[in-house]
Amino acid sequence: YDSGQDGYIDLMELKLMMEKLGAPQTHLGLKNMIKEVDEDFDGKLSFREFLLIFHKAAAGELEEDSGLLTLAKLSEIDVSIEGVKGAKNFFEAKVQALSSASKFEAEIKAEQDERKREEEERKNRRAAFRELKSAFTQ
């Protein structure tokens, strides 16, 4: 979910994550989620702070109506109930879902790049035509 690839999850990345998990939050709710585990008060989640969510959830230290508790529950799997194979299937399904979303995003990006390339070709053809036209009009 670190789309900025800066090693942190900021407000917008957290928003996207919660939407993809099926538990969208308000802007204020997202800010409160970050604030609840933001140890260095930088307004974003580091990997350590992200793991702190699950530590606090396991210790019962998160508010019942907290978006972080929702996040922890949505990402939680009990290996004693599911077994190792069930946990493996759970995480493989998560990876598959994420990769299919990434494929869709990659397709959109490829289409946008193709449009940009076609527009650049049109500009180059127009410029070449104008140059050729100017040779005949002189």
CATH C-level name of the largest domain = Mainly Alpha
Enumerate how many helices there are, as a single number: 5
H/E topology pattern = HHHHH
Number of strands: 0
Biggest beta-sheet profile: none
List low-pLDDT spans.
none
Report strand %: under 5%
Task: Examine the coordinates and then state which fold CATH places here, giving the name of the CATH topology of the largest domain.
Answer: Recoverin, domain 1
GO cellular component, one term: mitochondrial inner membrane
InterPro entries: EF-hand-dom_pair, EF_hand_dom, EFHD1/2
Keywords: Calcium, Coiled coil, Metal-binding, Repeat
Coiled coil: 101-130
What is the strand and helix layout of this fold?
Blueprint: H1 11-20, H2 27-37, H3 47-58, H4 67-74, H5 79-137
Features:
2 domains; mainly alpha; single chain; Recoverin, domain 1; 138 residues
Summarize the model shown.
The chain is mainly alpha-helical and 138 residues long. 72% of the residues lie in helices and 0% in strands.
Structural commentary:
By secondary structure, the protein is mostly helical. The protein has 2 domains: 67 residues, Recoverin, domain 1 (Orthogonal Bundle), CATH 1.10.238; 60 residues. Helices cover 72% and strands 0% of the residues. It has 5 helices and no strands. The longest helix is centred in the last third of the chain and has 59 residues. It is elongated, with a radius of gyration of 24 Å. The chain starts with 10 loop residues before the first helix and ends with a helix. The mean pLDDT is 77.
